[in-house]
């Protein structure tokens, strides 16, 4: 009688903590010193699905794959912002055009970094666009956000964004201390995705060029073409660059992301197909990838990442976990975007949901967030 919970044997506490999802583990470790020291470390690399923004709510909902539940977090910083994510950090674009990076919003140890705002993007037309989109505040000015490294892991990190100015899909680069974004000059085409890979940023544009930008070299404002995708692989609605768990560069093609409705509006039609290719930049060659073996890829408005399968945490092998990546800011889509999500099985081309509910937002649909403890 009267036995203290803190007196439970450390082995038992350790066992109890083993199968907890990151959220419950964090709560477990917060109970007391004994529980903290007995529990396994918070080191899960299972991503969270940050659900769409609900107007007026200071809390944000996160869908947790391991426990299949929704965890709510008080996050006034992301309220009514448009969000992107990279390496566990969330980029928020506010209605006041301000940009912030927020570390690991699901953890108790959050950290915020302010970036130059949208008006500091290297394009005079951005301001016009901002005025034009005044009803939304931020419009779809930024479409991708990629970190070279987590700012808590390296002080000499870089931030790359894909933004829409006088041309769609331009590249903007920032490093700590800069007062504004630097334009990265690329061939006159629409950049669809960007990745930090083997020390450089690589962008993929809509004509299939892979461009390299050495953000740490003497000409960080230039991107050079290093590969061109074969013509027969073009014509896809969305393309992604992902680094595989073995270090190779993958191009992922996505089809069915949107269709044109009868009213002539673009509307999400539902993704039905993916293809994966491995690119060898040294030999300038490519090959189709039939299986991802024991890894899966996480794609969407986040910077893409691979993950090794984790049966304990319900991550399936050889799959593509995708979220809606099409933001239609027209007033015709009242609910907003977000419903084109699922798990694509590379083996047989079937798709199943990862989140059973509905989560749409006109400005901030669901995104994957990598944990970063
Ligand atoms: Zn959970």
Short description:
This protein is mainly beta and 373 residues long. The chain has 4 helices and 27 strands.
- The shape is globular
Q: How is the largest sheet built, in terms of strand order?
A: 23-22-24-25-26
Count of individual beta strands: 27
List the ions, cofactors and other small molecules found in this model: zinc ion
Treating each run of at least 4 consecutive H or I residues as one helix, how many helices? 4
Q: What structural class do helix, strand and pairing data support? A: mainly beta
Question: What number is the mean pLDDT?
Answer: 85
Roughly what percent helix?
under 10%
Tally the structural domains.
2
CATH topology of the largest domain: Neuraminidase
What is the end-to-end distance? 38 Å
Low-confidence stretches: none
Largest sheet: 5 strands, mixed
Q: What is the CATH level 1 assignment of the largest domain?
A: Mainly Beta
Q: In CATH terms, what is the architecture of the largest domain?
A: 6 Propeller
**Percent of residues in beta strands?**
25-35%
Radius of gyration: 21 Å
What does this molecule look like?
- With 373 residues, the chain is mostly beta strands.
- It folds into 2 domains: 1-43; 44-369, Neuraminidase, CATH 2.120.10.
- 8% of the residues lie in helices and 34% in strands.
- It has helices at residues 10-18, 22-29, 33-38, 125-132, and strands at residues 48-50, 59-64, 69-74, 82-86, 89-93, 99-103, 112-115, 142-147, 159-163, 170-174, 182-184, 191-197, 200-205, 209-213, 224-228, 238-243, 249-255, 259-260, 266-267, 273-280, 285-289, 295-299, 305-308, 319-322, 342-345, 351-352, 367-369.
- Strands 23-22-24-25-26 form a 5-stranded mixed beta sheet, with no helix packed on it. Strands 3-2-1-27 form a 4-stranded antiparallel beta sheet, with no helix packed on it. A 4-stranded antiparallel beta sheet has the order 4-5-6-7, with no helix packed on it.
- The mean pLDDT is 85.
- The chain binds zinc ion (ZN).
- Zinc ion (ZN) binds next to α2 and β3.
- Zinc ion binds at residues 21, 23-24, 64, 66-67, 69, 71.
